[in-house]
Task: structure prediction
Amino acid sequence: MLQLIWRLHPDTQATFALINRTRSVRLADVIDEGKLRAQLDHARTLRLSKKELIWLAGNSFYGNARMFDPEFLAWLKDFSAP
Result:
């Protein structure tokens, strides 16, 4: 999905949302907000390793070889979540 946005709408800001469809599980009662914020802060520091980028470049997904454009992978190398 990110490659599609990167390719077709490079100047568009995209957002992510989580929809809990299991009404019996009240996430706010199960997940501590402070711990969730700490994990999200940590996620902002993560980057793909060189080995992971090589793996993405060389593997087949859904029957398609080299699904990711080399230019996208070069951009993804420096990507960080806002």
Summary: Strands lie at 60-61, 64-65. The first strand starts at residue 60 and ends at 61. The first helix runs from residue 2 to 8.
